[in-house]
Write a structure and sequence with these properties.
InterPro entries: LysR_HTH_N, LysR_subst-bd, WH-like_DNA-bd_sf, WH_DNA-bd_sf. This is LysR substrate-binding domain-containing protein. With 293 residues, this protein is an alpha/beta fold. The protein is built from nine helices and twelve strands.
Length: 293
């Protein structure tokens, strides 16, 4: 069905006057009258009763008007939705966040995204190691990742957001907790809790490299996959840990955080997505994340 004819019909049905309807539509009256006759011929019913003095809707015309109004409203709604999709204003995205930034970043980020992109439905997965995030990006389980950058991956688009300094997380009763800062060499002989080596954690490799650069052979006692578990074990006195500074947002009784110096080391936090993803709502989300830093 020609949408123009439907709009012509609604104009005449609402005005009940071909001249006024033609003015409303910014067209001449004869083409309007011809379009309505063609519509009636196509439908095989009379929509209007016409006399030299008045125009009235037939019963069929009244029934048709109700349905046509609904059709035109749906068409306009569909057009508006298409425009919003093209503008990146609607959609659904799942964001994965590395564990060390989950507690410090996600509360602020989720509020910012809701405020700036209210038409996009966001879901979040926290406590993800970088390798798991990369795998989830490739599988489509997540759309955007906040991660510690892995080795160069040409299939991903990666933007560095900031660099986070490393700190020592210590049991409150540990002798090193009395210091204002800790050197990497001070951790010689100290039981360590690290992120999982078996899951190829970026932080695991960073911590081992830091210790060995300081001439210390790390004494790893526990490996975990989640930041919350790691800090809980520190609070329980089972060992110390080296973590990015945002982890200090996870405050538990029994844990103290001290700056790690000599060497002072930092680690990147980045936002990543698959390089072949160019949907407008994804691009706008990445823009909001980058502006946050």
């Amino acid at each position: 069905m020609d949408l123009r004819q439907l709009r012509y019909f609604v104009a005449v049905a609402e005005e009940l006057h071909f001249g006024r309807a033609a003015e409303r539509l910014h067209m001449a009256q004869p083409p309007l009258s011809q379009a309505i006759r063609q519509l009636e011929a196509r439908l095989g019913v009379a929509l209007f009763q016409r006399t030299t003095r008045r125009v009235e809707l037939t019963d069929a015309g009244r029934a048709y008007l109700e349905r046509v109004r609904g059709i035109l409203a749906e068409v306009e709604e569909a057009a508006d939705h298409a425009r919003r999709v093209a503008a990146g204003a609607v959609g659904h995205l799942t964001l994965g966040c590395v564990g060390s930034a989950t507690y410090s970043l996600l509360p602020t980020l989720s509020r910012r995204l809701a405020a700036e992109l209210p038409g996009i439905d966001f879901s979040f997965r926290g406590e993800m190691l970088a390798p798991d995030q990369v795998e989830a990006l490739h599988s489509g389980a997540i759309d955007v990742a906040l991660l510690r950058p892995p080795a160069a991956d040409p299939s991903l688009t990666v933007h560095t957001l900031r660099r986070d300094r490393l700190v020592a997380a210590l049991p409150a009763e540990h002798p090193l907790a009395a210091r204002s800062r800790v050197h990497a060499a001070d951790l010689a002989g100290v039981d360590l809790i690290t992120y999982s080596a078996g899951r190829h954690s970026v932080m695991h490799d960073v911590v081992l490299g830091l210790m060995r650069d300081a001439g210390v052979e790390p004494r790893i006692r526990h490996e975990v996959g989640e930041t919350s578990t790691l800090i809980t074990l520190v609070a329980g006195g089972l060992g110390a840990a080296v973590v990015p500074e945002p982890v200090t947002a996870l405050a538990l009784d029994g844990v103290v955080y001290r700056p790690l110096v000599r060497p002072t080391v930092s680690i990147e936090l980045a936002v990543a997505h698959r390089a072949d993803r160019d949907e407008p709502h994804l691009a706008r989300t990445v823009q909001v994340i980058r502006r946050l830093f």
